[in-house]
Amino acid sequence: MMQELRDIQIAHGASIKKEIVVSFGNERDALLAAKEWVALCDRTHWGRILVSDEDRLRFLHNQSTNDLQSLKPGTGCDTVFVSSTARTIDLVTAYILEDAVLLLVSPNRREYLLQWMDKYIFFADKVKLKDITNDTATYSLIGAESQRIVKELGAEEIIDRDYGNHQLFKLEDIEFRVAVGSGLAIPGYTLIVAAEYAAKLWKKLVELGAVPLGEEGWEQLRITQGRPIPDQELTDDYNPLEAGLWEKISFSKGCYIGQETIARLNTYKGVKQQLWGIRLAAPAEVGTIITLDEEKVGKLTSFTVTEQGYFGLCYIRTKAGGEGLKVRVGEVEGEVVEVPFLTRDSSQ
């Protein structure tokens, strides 16, 4: 079923490695579309985990940072899975269904999170986990005109709803779920469809004018927008407050894994480093130490090349400063800048 989708994408110029569409050879046009029109990104390689049974909401509420237990079917939110010491595991989007919760997780965290959650299901818990990644496909419409395409799909009811709201729609024989949010701080929608209809839906979206965007383009948008990912910005070295994920955290909900540490950091202003964007004068290697007056103040975690120049994400010691700070990344000059995806306190 997915081969039909790949054949269509290859016909549109796709270069595919390890089941990921790396590029359509149109990065400039696709990135422009994401800013001024609408780009279409295949996020099928992201994981999709279905959590069901009676205790599903209570269980997930206790496993991650946001207030899932108060959510109703048709709504959703981003939440962070953290360790007992509040180190980040993954930034996850949770969609509340009538009889389950659908989790959209990072590509390299699917198996880890399945094992992690399974470890915390105790004998009396009524919770079931199911990996539905191979049975489904996920696309993101990214850009200011995304709602026009959503309307053309007959899904105008979802337009102007809050982030994370979602609903099932049907176009001809294609049933698909549309959720508010592109996965970035850019207007858009996320679509989830059964694998058997993945090719038909992709073809329809392209016919409606969405410009295909490959993983290389997504990575550039991710970095310039500031979305952190596992193994780079989300690791055992950082907590979600340092990672700028304040709005993904409920400071009023009850106990959850890592809650005590996060509450203490918030109460006592204990955020020692923060994630920022950084403009660079030249290319730099991920992992390069960042210095200020020859003193180590941070580390480069992601890097990309844009039409506007060289750009990255980095952690900077809070005491060193923030936006506007001039630093050196190895031998390269850099300026610390704000990025739209991140928040820096609980009031944002």
Question: What does this entry look like structurally?
Answer:
It is a single chain. With 348 residues, the protein is α+β, with helices and mostly antiparallel strands. Helices cover 22% and strands 33% of the residues. It contains 8 helices and 19 strands. α1 packs parallel to α6. 45% of the residues are buried.
Quick structural gist:
The chain has 348 residues and is of the alpha+beta class. It has helices at residues 2-11, 27-36, 56-63, 110-119, 146-152, 198-207, 215-225, 259-267; strands at residues 15-17, 20-23, 39-42, 47-52, 76-82, 88-96, 100-105, 128-131, 136-142, 166-171, 174-180, 188-194, 211-213, 273-280, 289-292, 295-306, 309-317, 326-329, 332-337. The strands form four sheets. A six-stranded mixed sheet has the order 10-11-12-9-3-13. Strands 14-17-16-15-18-19 form a six-stranded antiparallel beta barrel. Strands 5-6-7-4-8 form a five-stranded antiparallel sheet, covered by helices on one side.
